[in-house]
TrEMBL record:
Belongs to the short-chain dehydrogenases/reductases (SDR) family. It holds the Pfam family adh_short. This is SDR family oxidoreductase. Gene3D superfamilies: NAD(P)-binding Rossmann-like Domain (3.40.50.720). InterPro entries: NAD(P)-bd_dom_sf, SDR_fam. It comes from Halotia branconii CENA392. GO terms for molecular function: oxidoreductase activity, acting on the CH-OH group of donors, NAD or NADP as acceptor. Keywords: Oxidoreductase.
Length: 257
């Protein structure tokens, strides 16, 4: 098992959900964390809490991954002590709405495509060359069951996660011959802010998504990511699909009412 002590780990979307859970599990192992998110206040609170609890070094980045120039600037201006990123967790992502495609909201489409696909591409493009030149590294992309199975109203979101699946596979092929590893972790139902964001803050509607079901937690997903990044250097976990026991497919869910 690889030790994460003093490894530099960049996590996007770190201010909530799976990103925060990853930050905590890696902090426990003594990693050096670069935490990136749009919400600086929440990010700083998390950084202060983890630094105090685990006595680790943390570098915070207020960053919107949709902004390519901002991503380029953030990576190129990292202090020397933080520039050699060992692990990149492309976690920033979101879903907006459940409209039929022919009734879809253009702004929702743009936000999902720009965050889930282009943001992931920008980080990968600016971070991976350093991994290749240093002869080591690991990229973990957070996909979804939605990238494997489309569901009604999921059209564009499912399309973005199918893109993450294809990009992960393509990146692994492009890195053949280097020691850099690529993993896609694709969860089913996870109770985070995901549904709240999808329904634009309609908490009542969001809560119904998980009604009668025991969903995955952010910690469950972070635990799987931790497993993937700590395998022996010659082992690459290409893809992991994980779902709660109450879920058998993107649409088949057992609800106890």
């Amino acid at each position: 098992m690889i030790s994460l002590k003093n490894q530099i780990i960049l996590i996007t979307g770190a201010s909530s959900g799976i990103g925060t859970a990853c930050a905590r599990i890696f902090a426990h192992e003594g990693a050096k964390l670069i935490l990136a998110a749009r919400r600086l206040e929440r990010l700083q609170q998390l950084a202060d809490t983890l630094a105090k609890e685990f006595n680790i070094e943390i570098h915070s980045l207020q960053l919107d991954v949709r902004d390519r120039i901002a991503v380029e600037s953030a990576i190129s201006t990292l202090p020397a002590a933080w520039s050699n990123i060992d692990i990149l967790i492309n976690n920033a992502g979101l879903s907006r709405g459940l409209d039929k495609l022919h009734e879809g909201d253009f702004q929702n489409w743009e936000e999902m495509i720009d965050t889930n696909i282009k943001g992931l591409l920008y980080l990968t493009r600016y971070v991976v060359p350093g991994m290749v030149s240093r002869g080591g590294g690991h990229v973990v992309n957070i996909g979804s069951i939605a990238g494997h199975q489309t569901y009604p109203g999921g059209n564009v979101y499912c399309g973005t996660k199918a893109a993450v699946k294809a990009i992960s596979e393509g990146l692994k092929q492009d890195l053949l011959g280097t020691p850099v590893r690529v993993t896609s972790v694709d969860p089913g139902m996870v109770e985070t802010e995901f549904s709240d964001v999808r329904f634009h803050g309609d908490t009542e509607r969001a809560n119904k998504v998980y009604q009668g079901v025991t969903p995955l937690t952010a910690d469950d997903v972070a635990d799987v990511i931790f497993f993937c990044v700590t395998r022996s250097p010659h082992v690459n976990i290409n893809e992991v699909i994980l779902m709660p026991v109450d879920q058998a497919s993107a649409t088949l869910v057992n609800r106890r009412t």
